[in-house]
Amino acid sequence: MIRSLLNWRSLLALIAIIIVSATIFYSQYLSSKIATDERQKVALWVSASKAILSNPGMDLTLPNLIRNGQQSIPIIETNEMDSIMGYINLDSSRAASDKNYLYHQLKKFRSQNHPLEFKISDTPYIANRYYYGHTTLLDEVRYYPLIQLFIVALFIFFILYSITIRNKATQNQLWAGMAKETAHQLGTPVSSLEGWVEMLKESEIDPRTVQEIKKDVDRLKLVSDRFGKIGSKPQLEERDLIGQIKNMVEYIRKRAAGRVQFLVNTPGKEKIEARISGPLFDWVIENLLKNALDAMEGRGNITVTIQEQEKEILIDVADTGKGIAAKNWEKVFKPGFTTKKRGWGLGLSLSKRIIEQYHQGQLFVRQSEHGKGTTFRIILKK
């Protein structure tokens, strides 16, 4: 089915290319014929002018008829030194008011066509030259297909753009629907677990064990709350980013296996406030820290640097892991893309959606080098 669809798309693309090429070639063929015809008309007009100058006593009815009948092709007459002597089919009022108008037209005609020359004498050399330009018909035939193709291309672009926007909207609805359904499904077992925890508190089980179970239940509630917020406009509140991030780093530190060192760097700052959704922002930091841990395979350093600038807050999450190939810097944020043996490749995609759609910020790979590590950057507006 997919192969058949691709074949049809290739066939349609080929047909479109053939139609476009045929249109361009045919328009060039017509413009060439019109240009040849116009040169013949100018040559006939020059011959009529030559007859009038050379034979003043003969019947000049036909030469005058030919000269007066040529009302479409603009012509400028010059001497052998290219000094302008006369013109026809040009704007006479503009020529009278602008002394450079005729010289600009002469330069234009010289670039468009070779002049026709009428030699009057050899010694001294005296001749009249006739420079002529394109008619409106020739310009229309030559450029109209290109304008038409541009309009068609613009139309196709808007169609493809609208399809892309619609697909993204459908994808967003699907994400939101899946997230809300997940939150709904988690709600019932989490409520049940809370009840069991209360019962365990009244039993003879070690209180420390009950406390740890309660922490895991609270964690499940937090996950459910995060999924429930996807697709809905989150409530942004003023929060201390340094404290928020340090809490999440501490949470991940306690669960990190191996020899991993964590560092939160806040140059000269003890508190930086920003409007964020706490649960969703924590989710982003958690995803970035977990990706860093997976990249280092149990050994290395994770450094979170928080900087406050005049209009922005920069948050860099750097690790000393295996790095990301440059060709994958954009792909890592696409749903389903993952280099790990486990996971669905949704963490970074959701993180980017949370930062850019809900917080009007940016999330991207700032730098990465094979074998030396990766730095993700979050930019939040103040």
Give the arrangement of secondary structure elements.
Elements: H1 2-54, H2 61-69, E1 75-79, E2 84-88, H3 92-97, H4 101-112, E3 116-121, E4 126-132, H5 136-201, H6 207-229, E5 237-240, H7 241-255, E6 259-265, E7 273-276, H8 278-296, E8 299-308, E9 312-319, H9 347-358, E10 362-369, E11 373-381
SSE-based structural type: alpha+beta
Integer count of domains: 3
| Rounded average pLDDT | 82
Number of helices: 9
Strand order of the largest sheet: 6-8-9-11-10
Radius of gyration: 39 Å
Main sheet specs:
5 strands, mixed
CATH superfamily of the largest domain: Histidine kinase-like ATPase, C-terminal domain
The backbone outline, from C-alpha atoms, is elongated
The level of helicity is 55-70%
H-E string = HHEEHHEEHHEHEEHEEHEE
CATH topology-level name of the largest domain = Heat Shock Protein 90
CATH class of the largest domain: Alpha Beta
Poorly predicted ranges = none
Give the CA-CA distance, first to last residue. Answer: 50 Å
The proportion of residues in beta strands is 15-25%
Describe this structure in words.
- With 382 residues, the protein is an alpha+beta fold.
- It folds into three domains: 12-134; 159-227, no CATH class; 234-381, Heat Shock Protein 90 (2-Layer Sandwich), CATH 3.30.565.10.
- It is built from nine helices and eleven strands.
- The chain has helices at 2-54, 61-69, 92-97, 101-112, 136-201, 207-229, 241-255, 278-296, 347-358; strands at 75-79, 84-88, 116-121, 126-132, 237-240, 259-265, 273-276, 299-308, 312-319, 362-369, 373-381.
- The protein has a five-stranded mixed sheet.
